[in-house]
Design brief:
Two copies of one chain form a homodimer. By secondary structure, chain A is α/β, with parallel strands linked by helices. Chain A has six helices and six strands, in the order E-H-E-H-H-E-H-E-H-E-E-H.
């Protein structure tokens, strides 16, 4: 397979840098072709602004979606953005790797999403009507490909558990997994999460590394999170609300948008946490 | 009161620009003192990198939290960051205003958080022990102040409703409201959300504007979201899990971290959506 790893950490000698190297080495040993977009090393420009749309008249009001759509259609997006879009089209698997900063991705990676996900490429795709609300959430430009997150946290696994103060990790990652990866069509794999990374001793690091290698070995086979396809019949259109008869009656919030009953080889009653890769050692104190 | 509005939209002539001007004008008419941090106009640097820590030796490994804490303690953070921290200390109320891009804030605003929220300022504050897990989630440097979001979306209100495909808006905003605003101590007010803003006619705009003026008039009096204080007894320490006997047995996910029963003048059974400002016109097609 072809794998694109988008990496967002400012220090190559960091734990994230080490995990990236381990992932790349394991993937290459398996015969996969790997490319890395190292956003800090590339000096990636994070902010969407007028400079992204060179064809926009100097005195024209910048309407981001419209400008993005026009530039994409005309092949007039900036070169850095076009290069990343080509890499996304090239790759069978996308991996986003980052430290969780303030419960989300670092700004430089958010800026990769904001800029690379152009209108006509990642959104604004397909028929928009009262019967089909665009090709998104399971359909779209990147359908048929797989994507997953590699995330590190300073906090403990318990702090991100079902009743943990930060909120459950799968809920915190839902806006990314569902809203950024599933949206343009990716099959989204369970995230790899390493907790409490500021306190890792050598044994802890080796444990995380081995878990990561194992995840890389199953990249092509592990079942994706069973999100519901927007245009698959579960949602009313155009209100895009889950039909009253769909969904686990006991479910609420983000979990409504999973159909665990339809997932092969998985208990219908499994909770979201069960699908997150957990580093067992992080339970140690 | 003193109000700081942090604004993150690249186009002054946008709807967001118009709403910002309306909010500022209303606040000033009420006698409040207002400052605006217009991140695009300031050419705010979004990414955390070595340049943020001038005292760091050129060959030293960058450990972000450690470097941030050392620079904050030594007064050695970059001038742009120090100026924003001073504004936060000056203001009684913080408003973050942004368009919802990919279910979160634009990169430039995330980068304001990543950089301004230094260790020792917004995190790493207070005693860290088995009885008190730092001053955060209701305590901290910014305790006693209020904060709120002003957010615009292209999508419909229904798409962000309890069963809407995007997920409930209050859940999507939880990582910001709870994880970024409540974390360093702010009392967090219900967000102001304007939906479907790409299709606003003049009547629609006037309706949003009037709702926003009303919210500005109640900035000092509206009850905050009743999040649970980390060190207030509801959580086990150090696992930081909500005690088994705490919380609505029917609640799960992010909603567990609210204590609506303790909120004055509010039904214990109110759902999160009830606390979001809703622009009624956005239901029109």
């Amino acid at each position: 397979m072809k794998v694109l790893l988008v990496f967002a950490h400012p220090e190559p000698r960091s734990l994230n840098g080490a995990l990236r190297d381990i992932a790349v080495k394991e993937l290459e040993a398996l015969g996969h072709e790997v490319r890395v977009s190292d956003l800090y090393a590339m000096r990636w420009k994070p902010e969407v602004d007028r400079a992204d749309f060179p064809a926009l008249a100097p005195d024209a009001r910048l309407k981001v979606a419209a400008a993005s759509g026009e530039a994409f259609a005309a092949g007039a997006l900036s070169e850095d953005v076009k290069a990343e879009q080509e890499r996304l089209l090239w790759a069978d698997v996308l991996i986003l790797q980052f430290p969780l900063w303030w419960y989300s991705m670092p700004a430089i990676l958010k800026g990769w999403v904001d800029r690379v996900y152009a209108y006509g490429f990642a959104y604004g795709v397909g028929e928009l009507s009262d019967r089909h609300w665009g090709d998104r959430f399971g359909e779209g430009t990147l359908a048929g490909k797989r994507a997953m997150l590699i995330v590190t946290t300073g906090g403990w696994e318990e702090h991100y558990s079902t009743r943990g103060i930060n909120g459950p990790i799968d809920d915190l990652l839902f806006p990314i997994n569902h809203g950024i990866l599933y949206y343009p069509g990716y099959d989204v794999l369970p995230p790899f999460v390493a907790y409490r990374v500021d306190r890792l001793d050598d044994a802890g690091f080796q444990s995380v590394a081995e878990r990561l290698r194992e995840r890389m070995r199953t990249l092509g086979s592990i079942p994706p999170i069973p999100y519901r396809r927007q245009n698959g019949g579960d949602y009313l259109i155009p209100s895009l609300q889950l039909r009253p008869e769909s969904g686990d009656p006991a479910a609420s919030g983000f979990a409504l948008h999973r159909n665990d009953a339809a997932a092969p080889g998985r208990d219908a009653g499994s909770d979201t946490t069960a699908n997150t890769s957990v580093c067992e050692f992080s339970r140690d104190r």
